[in-house]
What does this fold into?
Amino acid sequence: MENSSLDIYPSDDIKEMMLSRVNNLRAEGCYCGNEYMRPVKAVVWDDMLYKSALSHAKEMKDKRFFSHFSANGLDIGDRLDGFGYPWQIAGENLGEGQRSFREVMRDWIESPSHCRMLMNPKVEEMGVARHSRFWVQHFGKKLPKGARRSKRK
It folds into this structure.
């Protein structure tokens, strides 16, 4: 289960395992580098974040690159807009070459910037996808109903 590819929609067991690992860390608090991150509330799974993560993982494999920007320069916010996710807060962790979620989580925790994303108190949802050797974890918080985000510059 831990090593299965996530480019096929993950089973409930796999989603629960990933959420459990992320939320256990969030509930305990941790050090991200030298900075202590206090416990924060749990995140929930979001299918749109999964789909956007999978799309980015597939693009990185198909076009042979590794970046927080798409091949045509779109950032996480631009890509979430394309999936219709009404984001207020958006974030992304990437991994390459890890064979299991346990491995990629360990690497994210050991990286201060990735760890801070895992512990971000402002995000409420996540989706994780793996395609080939690429892992993408998307985080988000949706705009309140009826709210609109002003255009970014």
